[in-house]
Design a protein that fits this description.
The structure holds two protein chains of two kinds. Chain A has helices at 13-24, 37-43, 69-74, 77-90, 102-107, 111-120, 137-152, 177-190, 205-209, 226-236, 249-263, 268-286, 304-317, 334-345, 361-369, 383-389, 412-423, and strands at 5-6, 27-32, 95-100, 125-128, 160-167, 194-196, 214-220, 240-243, 297-302, 321-327, 354-357, 375-378, 392-395. By secondary structure, chain A is of the alpha/beta class. Chain A folds into three domains: 13-152, Nitrogenase molybdenum iron protein domain (Rossmann fold, 3-Layer(aba) Sandwich); 160-285, Rossmann fold; 289-423, Rossmann fold, CATH 3.40.50.1980. Chain A has a five-stranded parallel sheet, sandwiched between helices. In chain A, strands 6-5-7-8 form a four-stranded parallel sheet. In chain A, helix 1 packs across helix 2 (37-43), helix 7 runs parallel beside helix 10 (226-236) and helix 12 runs parallel beside helix 17. Chain B has helices at 22-30, 48-56, 76-89, 107-112, 115-129, 140-144, 149-157, 179-193, 215-227, 241-246, 262-272, 285-298, 302-327, 338-350, 365-378, 390-400, 431-447, 450-458, and strands spanning 18-21, 37-39, 62-66, 99-102, 133-137, 163-167, 204-209, 231-236, 252-255, 276-277, 331-335, 354-360, 382-385, 404-406, 419-420, 476-478. In chain B, strands 1-13-12-11-14-15 form a six-stranded mixed sheet, with helices on both faces. Chain B is built from 18 helices and 16 strands. In chain B, 45% of the residues lie in helices and 14% in strands. Chain B is globular. Chain B has three domains: 48-193, Nitrogenase molybdenum iron protein domain (Rossmann fold, 3-Layer(aba) Sandwich), CATH 3.40.50.1980; 204-303, Nitrogenase molybdenum iron protein domain (Rossmann fold), CATH 3.40.50; 324-478, Nitrogenase molybdenum iron protein domain (Rossmann fold). Chain B is an alpha/beta fold. Classes of the chains: A alpha/beta, B alpha/beta. Strand 1 of chain A pairs antiparallel with strand 4 of chain B, so a sheet runs across the interface.
Chain lengths: 427, 481
């Protein structure tokens, strides 16, 4: 069960849902909630991810019933119906999703029934019933996917052999999501695959709709979307392959390619050719910075995906010494923790770091204090500690408030180059 | 005893929704014919909890507990940012972050009550940081399930050195986010000041500042006060328990924003006999003059102030004239919070610009004072009483086609219109030098509109084309009582 948290990383369920809808684009959230939720869920999630503001609807442009005392006492269903009608009249969206704020969920307004009334009139209005207080943005991310598989994804008996869904990289919660998705898509394209990534430039609800015709789900995350994985298999007959982290650098990315190649029976020669070309490219640059970065004893603090990926890359490919890796997702299943631990411990040469699961700011800092490190990869939350200690710090994980990120990536081959550029400093 | 309103809607003649022409509105307000309206379709609002938290987060010796699910601390990030950047500007080597704990109410707590988690949070605040003050902020969820935050605070206070201050800022209680400022000050009065009377300190001014005031602006305000022989007790932004306690020994109070601490300054007058000046935000010549004169009058230094004002005008008028020659006659649409929107509307007068539309979150007696003046200098213009509502804004802006938009630029920029903002919490915008900073910024941005123009070819707004042909105010309806 969720416990009190100091400086939590992320928002409530609605923050996660809003991030997903924003990343797809042209999807209209309708908040059935108190005033303020529009700003809180935007500032608390998408705006702490490298400074971008979603282009479609965010913050005070999100339609909202702004429930006040009167609605709390007498119910807000009529207000919601008016609000939805207004949205349909003026917002040019592909679909409309009703989000259930604390206020409406506690008083028990029936958003499911109301959405159904509009759907009977052929309007694409869908409820996401999981209320704000049910959990954190990770749960919101999953709730949004559930809404997609419940209402948007189309069943397709015929599968398109070269079509894959790339999911698991949580938009905004991984600040480099857009660039990382771009880089992994570039790599998958090179294998002759067409990619539905749902999120980012050039993607839309159409990609979600046709995801039921994909040959494979590529899930890049150690623990999220297990329900979605099951639904895709049972309802849409789309199997999944799961990677425990965003692949960063040559070693992990080449493994990623080989595993997908094998699963989809892609021509081995093509697979090896793609790998060779990309590895050559990476080492062409690495070769020109030999000795440029001194030895680092590093700590990583961040979401599971990033923490695993960063630890493995810097330890395996860059020969830095991992000291402690702190996974900040609130995890409630021991099996998820075991999986993550196994993955971080699986290093090629060096002794694995200490692995900690902790979401609370104070406890994270107390843990960091115990270690002798020279490089800290973390979020805006750790900057104060790094300043106090006078150690090198790089802001790479959520919340990220001190840098602007468009399509910069740290994943794959190209991302590993950018990352090393960022790790370098001359002090 | 000051008249106490729990939320701003309870103040007489205060309206949070409405629209019309400014002259008609002035007339309707004067004749008490304004009606309470609501929108049948609306975009989101800022809640009062955001304001309560934001106004206090920079208090250095405190811990802040938000008694809510994880979402209700989202907006604290903007105040955290201003606090951190503010430290950088004040020359700090290490930027401290505020200590914020969310009690993290969940499904279970909604049914069973979340008081246990609040108690845990208070104990953690003490054990971790041994603070002087522990603030507890209520939320929609904690309010509806009726967790007794006052009772818990009182009970735990018995064994606690830190002062526990519960604040009733439940979001659903008010549509006017500035109510959250009042809630915060009301709690400070009750739990920190406690009616303790101490001897006054000659020359000490309570200078109330919200988090949107830059360090440069603070220095400018302090400089101006020093010209009157006054020194500032700068609160609550970048202050401490000690400075808050000092509020009761000040000689006089004033605020940098007219919607900030206005109720509280009245209370300080009634309880501690501290007179106050409630004027306007010192942005632009007229506003800076009246802000400065306001405080000078109370301390009996009107003559000195007038002399200083004359000198300052003489000093900057040539520079203002240069800016005016670049901006004269340009048509402007203004959108902002209540303080800033009226400040901007008055600022552009200095540069000979013309107001064609104004969005303000609230219309009340203070607004009426400003509107009367604005009507005299600009003639009729459109007024939208709205806390943003971007769908109305883009509709109106598209119709009015102003030469410049002042306010949050996200939407109008996409229309290709030059945009700028006078709310810059990290830059100098106030006092006499602030006029020059803002004027030059406005002129440069107007003369060099390339970014927005090129952007507008590709940028998208989320509305149907048909919306721009509709009456922008079609969703504003009279409330049926």
């Amino acid at each position: 069960m969720p416990q009190m948290l100091e400086s939590p990383r992320g928002n409530c369920v609605l923050g996660g849902i809003n991030a997903v809808l924003a990343a797809v684009g042209r999807l209209c959230p309708i908040l059935h909630s108190g005033p303020g939720c529009c700003m809180q869920i935007t500032a608390g999630e998408v705006l702490q991810s490298g400074g971008k503001i979603p282009y479609f609807l965010s913050g005070v442009s999100i339609p909202s019933t702004n429930m006040l005392e009167r609605e709390v006492v007498f119910g807000g269903e009529q207000k919601l119906r008016d609000e939805i009608q207004g949205c349909l009249d003026i917002i040019d969206a592909d679909a409309y999703f009703i989000l259930n704020g604390c206020t409406s969920a506690i008083i028990g307004d029936d958003i499911k029934n109301i959405a159904e009334d509009f759907r009977k009139k052929n309007y694409p209005v869908y409820p996401i019933e999981t209320p704000g207080f049910a959990g954190d943005s990770f749960l919101g991310y999953e709730a949004a996917f559930k809404a997609f598989t419940d209402y948007i994804v189309k069943e397709s008996k015929i599968k398109q052999k070269n079509l894959v869904n790339l999911i698991g990289i949580m938009p905004y919660h991984e600040p480099f999501w857009e660039g990382n998705i771009e880089e992994l898509t570039r790599i998958l394209n090179a294998l002759g695959l067409e990619v539905n990534s749902f999120f980012g430039y050039g993607q839309s609800i159409k990609n979600i709709e046709k995801s039921g015709a994909a040959a494979l789900n590529i899930i890049v995350n150690p623990w999220l979307l297990k329900g979605t994985q099951k639904t895709y298999l049972e309802k849409f007959n789309v199997p999944s392959i799961r990677f425990s982290s965003t692949p960063i650098g040559a070693t992990d990315t080449s493994n990623f390619i080989r595993k997908i190649g094998k699963t989809l029976n892609i021509d081995k020669n093509l697979v090896e050719k793609v790998i060779e070309e990309n590895e050559k490219y990476v080492y062409y640059f690495y070769e020109q910075a030999i000795g440029k970065l001194s030895w680092k004893k590093f700590a990583v603090v961040g979401d599971a995906n990033s923490t695993i990926g960063l630890t493995k890359f810097l330890a395996n490919d860059y020969s830095f010494t991992p000291v402690v890796s702190i996974v900040t997702d609130s995890l409630y299943h021991q099996s998820d923790k075991d999986e993550i631990e196994k993955e971080i411990k699986n290093l090629e040469y060096i002794k694995p770091p200490k692995i900690i699961f902790e979401s609370d700011y104070y406890n994270i800092i107390e843990e960091l204090k115990k270690h002798d490190i020279t490089l800290l990869l973390g979020s805006a939350n750790e900057i104060e500690f790094a300043m106090e200690k006078g150690i090198q710090f790089l802001e790479l994980t959520f919340p990220m408030t001190e840098r602007l990120v468009f399509n910069r990536c740290i994943a794959g081959y190209k991302g590993s180059l950018t990352l090393i550029e960022d790790v370098y400093d001359n002090l | 005893m000051a008249e106490e309103y729990k939320i701003r809607e309870q103040r007489p003649y205060t309206y949070a929704d409405g629209c019309g022409k400014s002259k008609d509105m002035e007339c309707r307000f004067r004749e008490r014919k304004m009606e309470t309206m609501d929108r049948t379709f609306a975009q989101g609002l800022q809640c009062q909890e955001i304001n309560s938290i934001g106004s206090l987060l920079s208090l250095e010796d405190s811990v802040f507990i938000i008694h809510s699910p994880q979402g209700c601390i989202g907006c604290s990030v903007t105040s955290v940012d201003r606090y951190r950047v503010g430290q950088a500007h004040r020359g700090k080597k290490v930027y401290r972050s505020p200590r914020i704990i969310v009690s993290n109410l969940d499904q279970n707590d909604i049914i069973m009550g979340g008081e246990k988690k609040l108690v845990q949070s208070i104990l953690a605040a003490r054990d971790r940081y041994n603070p002087k003050v522990i603030f507890i902020f209520a939320s929609c969820a904690s309010g509806i399930i009726a967790d007794d935050i006052d009772g818990i605070a009182a009970k735990m206070q018995k064994d606690m050195e830190a002062i526990i201050v519960p604040i009733h800022c439940e979001g659903f209680k008010s549509k006017i986010c500035a109510s959250g400022f009042d809630a915060a000050f009301r709690a400070i009065s009750k739990y920190i000041l406690k009616d303790e009377k101490n001897p006054k300190e000659e020359g000490l001014v309570n200078l109330f500042a919200p988090t949107t005031v830059s360090y440069k602006d603070q220095l400018e305000m302090e400089r101006m006060l020093s010209l009157l022989g006054l020194r500032a007790n700068y609160v609550p932004f970048f202050s401490s328990l000690e400075k808050m306690r000092k509020m009761t020994v000040a000689q006089v109070s004033t605020s940098i924003c007219k919607v900030f601490a206005d109720e509280f300054m009245q209370e300080l007058k009634d309880k501690y006999d501290i007179p106050f000046s409630h004027t306007v935000m010192p942005v632009g010549l007229r506003n800076t003059d009246s802000w400065f004169l306001g405080i000078a009058k109370i301390v009996g230094k009107e003559k000195e102030a007038l002399k200083i004002i004359e000198q300052e005008h003489k000093r900057i008028q040539p520079e203002i004239d240069k800016i005016k020659s670049r901006l004269e006659g340009k048509r402007v649409f203004v959108c902002g919070g209540t303080g800033r929107s009226f400040a901007a509307a008055l600022l552009i007068e200095d540069f000979g610009m013309k107001l064609v539309g104004l969005e303000t979150p609230v219309y009340d007696g203070d607004a009426q004072d400003d509107i009367q003046y604005l009507n005299k200098i600009y003639g009729d213009f459109i007024v939208d009483i709205a806390n943003m509502q971007p769908f109305e804004q883009v509709n109106i802006v598209k119709r009015l086609k102003p030469d410049l938009f002042i306010g949050v630029p996200h939407w109008s920029a996409r229309l290709g219109i030059p945009t700028t903002h006078i709310l810059e919490g990290k830059r100098p915008t106030m006092g006499y030098d602030g006029i020059l900073y803002l004027g030059n910024k406005i002129a440069d941005q107007m003369e060099n509109p390339g970014f927005n123009k090129k952007l507008s070819k590709y940028a998208r707004l989320p509305y149907k084309e048909s919306w721009y042909k509709e009456d922008p105010f079609k969703y504003i309806k009279k409330v049926q009582s």
